[in-house]
Amino acid sequence: MMKKKLTTLMMAFAIFFTMNVTTATKAEALVGFAFKSKVVKTIGGIGTGAGVGVFGIGLLIAKFGAATMSNLGAAIVTLIYGPIIAAIGLVILDDNTVVDLEYQPIDLLNTEAHSNFSLEEIQMYNAELEELNAVRKTIQSEVSAEGKDLEQAKTLWENYSQALHPSTIKVAEKKAAEFINTLKAAHKIQ
Amino acid sequence: MINIKTILLLLSIILSQSVWAKNIVLLSSLPKSDLKTTFKVKNIFHNKLSGLSDHEIIYINEADQEDIYKYLNDPETLGFFWLSHGGFKKIRGNRAGAIKPAPILFDHNKDNVAKAFQKIHPNIKYISVVGCNSFQILEGTINSREDLGYYIPTKKVIATFALRKAIKRFKKHYWSYKYNYLEEDQVQDGVQIKITRSTQTASKSLKVLAGRKLIGIIPKTQGKEDQVFNYYIPFSNELTKRDFKIVLASGQNAEDATDNFGDIEVTSSDSQMWKLFAKRDGTPFGVNERVYLFKDNLENIQDVEEYILYRAR
Lengths: 190, 313
Known about the structure:
heterodimer; A: 8 helices; globular; B: 313 residues; five-stranded parallel β-sheet
């Protein structure tokens, strides 16, 4: 059970790991690159097999000419669950802007949140958001830089999350799992 | 045939706008490779606004978060335009989730300057952030300021087209409203904190956030330098420790792992109890940011004083 939970969380982290890397592609004159042709370009380890096996060391940049929000979502899912992804996580990108996913505050008036967590748990999560995102970025950075594998990334989370309150960890893990499930549902992924 | 009333009305509008010589500012921050666009943007800005001779037209290229903070908090700024690459994304099916994309607005170094737009002087009556999908960055400000005109694209845009549109809307706003400026400094209670930074190499400017609110900027350094700056954390009786949590953020992207924060210390007259959020070995958590946790009791914060949040002039 715990293993499953951790795996789910790390899958979510895996997305973060790669999403938070900004692109190094050629700059363009358009603010939004509205007229770019459709190109899918890889930078980094994607396509090299082993490299991809880790948390998205490779950076896949999918530039959609007239990308919409749903293109982006589709890109995420395709990349996460597509054939490349035996091992999780990869990027996203349309228009050279990379998405940095982060934990954000939970509205205390959100009744749905209260059905899953106590008020104290939500308050603690909200109070420790900066620390949670700092831990997330640290893991992302260390995994990307050193090419650590899934198990090592899990270990990092287990070690670093000790700096957080147990309520924060509980909410963060649950929200990460929800995030993955939401994407799966929205894009009809099994 | 224009009647006398119309002429008087136009004159009164013109005179009312020129009581103070306010600045109209464009900060452009496209990458160096976008030279052609940068040149066009500069020309458009000057040409389209040349008729407003009562105002100084300020154009700055390769602007960064320090420039943003400076001009957004300058009482002389009337209209503010920012132009760079940007983008906020929504993920389908994730509207209510706690994990969401952060707003992104890149400067020419690809540093994220989005959070520098949190604090905007009340004398600024029009703002435009020309960057793809940038609306979310200023959504809160726009909702709380009825007198603020704006143009912020909600989709992908082309720089020159969008800037023309932004200027057109600014002129319409300018001629349609009588602007009221601060007549006295806007003050509030706060707790003064002191941040010292010693750098050995050239270091980026840092956003200073307390309780997720932008309270200032630590300027960049050119090399070995000792900096001492005071900032105020807004005070209220409902403050929690979270409001005293200090985050310093360079905005550097994850690819740029250059750690040039320098040695930093956060203190106040009442307390020395800010502790860097770090691993057991002292390595800070976070990438290109530092989190300082308030470890004292809130009851020990006694030294509350009035400070100027926005200067009138």
